[in-house]
Amino acid sequence: MKCRVKFRNMAAGISLAALSGMVYADDMAVNLILPTDASFYTHNFQSLKSPSYLLAANEGEAVPDAVKGPASVAPVIPAAEFKPPMFTGRNAHKYLGLGTIVLAGLTAATAPGEACETNCPPPSSQPRQTSGTAHSRLARATAAMAAATVMTGLLYHWDDFHMEDGWTDPDNLHAMLGTAGALLMLYAVDKSAKSTVPTSHAATAELGAVAMVVAIKLTW
Amino acid sequence: MMQKKWKIAAILAVALSLSSTYAMAEEYFWLWVVNPSRQKGVKPVTDKPYQNECGECHFAYQPGLLPAKSWEALLNADALRKHFGANAEVDKDTLRGIHDYAVDNAAEKSFYKRARKIAVATEEGPAPLRITELRYISRKHHDIPEKMIKGNPGVKSLSFCDKCHTQAAQGVYDADTVNIPNYPNWDGWFSK
Predict the structure, then answer these.
(1) A49: pLDDT strictly greater than 70
(2) Which of B95, B142, B158, B190 is the most exposed place for a label (fewest CB within 10 A)?
(3) Does residue A101 share a domain with residue A184?
(4) Containing domain of residue A198, as a range?
(5) Residue A83: inside a domain
(6) CA B57-B58-B62 angle, 5° bins
(7) Residue A103 — very low, low, confident or very high, per pLDDT cuts 50/70/90?
(8) Distance between CA atoms of residues A56 and B165, nearest Å
């Protein structure tokens, strides 16, 4: 039974990882088109000569056509109507985050009640352990989704996090609170799963969920 | 147990509120807290005279893209006579109107995420006069090849936000809404 539960958890984890992987691969596949443009590497001397690859080169007045090499001028392609893509890594991160909050709410709603930590009755008279209930399954799913949210956030928003901007920067606060929230949820699930009798873990998990809600609001 | 739990939650809430000093300073803080609509970019331009006067020559940049000290430096009669190499003078009343609108909606007075980021990044130091000079903005664009902007007849300069940011007029500058003219397949996987 325990083996099956472990297997199921592993399968859930792999599915979530595969989901992130698929989104990642999808974006990478599109991006692969860029380097196939050979002129990008061989003829765009402005890009190769100096760090002008960076913003500085994009600054100021536009370069007159006379001083530009033919390869530095982009081909004019008729503009097609643009529609933002539905499935992107950033959207996956957003929906995983929102899903985590929904699951956290459902987990709290299915909680069996307060557990005992001090002056407890003997284990035999305590309520039985609740693993395998809707609450514990939802809790595991919440923790897995929280972890997947953090992972997709690191993948798709890695460059929004800059310590030089200080910790009051909305993206920095978002990353710190979101990660702290996910870790608190994982700790709460782990604490409960390792105990032979019901342990109080609600405060930790709720704190984690609150941290995640605040993190989402800061960058919503 | 319950008491302890609520104590921790209350301490966290207070700490978060106090830490967000930039948010606390804003009189509409609680409205922002309960507002479920997305405020990830910058507040769109809502002032007709501002839109008309600025938009006549260039994209009407949202006031949230610069701090108030920058708008103060840019929107006065002297500065407008030499507005980035052009004479952009307007009559006194119009100038007062667009100046007040820009200052009242400047980065540090907005709850929109990108405006807050700009406000935090420009808190210290001299007033930046170009949006493209902002550290945050330059970092966001630094890995875009030159030929996609300056060498791109459909863009020409980073100043033309709306050439690539398809929802710039609505204040949305997400990477997912970027479409660089002549590079329709460049989705900016690592662009921000």
Answers:
(1) no
(2) B190
(3) yes
(4) 2-29+88-112+130-218
(5) no
(6) 130
(7) very high
(8) 20
Q: Are residues A165 and A191 in the same domain?
A: yes
- CB-based contact, A67 to chain B, within 8 Å: no
Give the one of B12, B19, B22 whose C-beta lies nearest to A210's C-beta. B12
The two three-digit tokens of residue B155, written as one number: 């863009």
Task: For chain A, give the secondary structure using H, E and C.
Answer: CHHHHHHHHHHHHHHHHHHHHHHHHHHHHHHCCHHHCHHHHHCCHHHHHCHHHCHHHHCCCCCCHHHCCHHHCCCCCCCCCCCCCCCCHHHHHHHHHHHHHHHHHHHHHCCCCCCCCCCCCCHHHCCCCCCCCHHHHHHHHHHHHHHHHHHHHHHHCHHHCCHHHCCCCHHHHHHHHHHHHHHHHHHHHHHHHHCCCCCCCHHHHHHHHHHHHHHHHHCC
Q: State the smallest CA–CA distance between residue A136 and chain B in angstroms.
A: 20
Q: Using the beta-carbon criterion (under 8 Å), do A47 and B145 form an inter-chain contact?
A: yes
Domains contained in chain A, number: 2
Percent of chain A residues topping a pLDDT of 70: 54
As a whole number, mean pLDDT of residues B35-55 equals 90
Residues A104 and A203 in one domain: yes
